[in-house]
Amino acid sequence: MKNLIQQLPLLFCFLSLISCKLDTEVSRKTVEGKEIAIDSTINGDPEIEEFIAPFKEHLNKTLDSTLAYNPHVLSKGEKGMNTGIGNLMADIVMEQANPVFKSRTGNNIDFVLLNYGGIRSELNKGPVTTRDAYNMMPFENQIVIAELSGAKVAQLLHYLEKSKSAHPVSGIQIKMDKSFKVISARIKGKPIQPDQNYFVATSDYLQQGGDSMNFFNNPVNLYDIDYKLRNAIIDYFQKTDTIKSQQDDRFIKE
């Protein structure tokens, strides 16, 4: 036992040398790799393609089934502070989300604000399908309702002045002068009251500060109604025969 104890320093030294050697050897190892593009030049595996064919057919049939009809092209490229497709999306949120919100809280949504950049595709003239809904909203964004003070709503309007973009709105009417300064803002026909709170429907992405919409930070209350924006669009298409959205006077610059 005494001899073993005396030999411990030598053992530790030996292990240290081995460790150093291993570290040195490992440090000399190199990893090489190359980028392999995944594109149309790669041939599919016939067995895999045969296996997924029925699922692909079913998925395409579901995505391409007609839900509604659109009589004219809706595009965010329209000039002005509101667009037909933006109005459609904001109105869909109001119409689809408000019944859910009211049933859970007893309150109504006062107005809706989405973002111009969130409109990812135009809606072509003709049959409207589930695939169109996915093209319009390819993200998994949820509808949320933020209770904002009148002061926060004033910050929201200032944001719109600075952005100078046709952000989709519903339930609020905004007028700007030629310099993009808000000269009038009414919610459901009434002037905004500084001492009143308002329920504003938007997406969880924007509520969390997306597009620098920081006025949504720290709301009085925040309600998640477990309803994806895309699902609201699909539900609206399913119950609508003909899309009637167009540009109007809800958000204008004089």
UniProtKB/TrEMBL annotation:
5'-Nucleotidase C-terminal domain sequence ranges: 81-216
Pfam families attached to this UniProt entry: 5_nucleotid_C
PROSITE patterns membership: PROKAR_LIPOPROTEIN
One Gene Ontology molecular-function label: hydrolase activity
Entry superkingdom: Bacteria
SUPFAM superfamilies reported in the protein's UniProt record: 5'-nucleotidase (syn. UDP-sugar hydrolase), C-terminal domain
Single GO biological process annotation from the record: nucleotide catabolic process
InterPro entries attached to this UniProt entry: 5'-Nucleotdase_C, 5'-Nucleotdase_C_sf, 5_nucleotidase/apyrase
Database matches in PANTHER family: 5'-NUCLEOTIDASE (PTHR11575:SF24), 5'-NUCLEOTIDASE-RELATED (PTHR11575)
Name this polypeptide is given: Secreted or periplasmic 5'-nucleotidase
Organism name: Zunongwangia profunda (strain DSM 18752 / CCTCC AB 206139 / SM-A87) (Wangia profunda)
Source lineage: Bacteria, Pseudomonadati, Bacteroidota, Flavobacteriia, Flavobacteriales
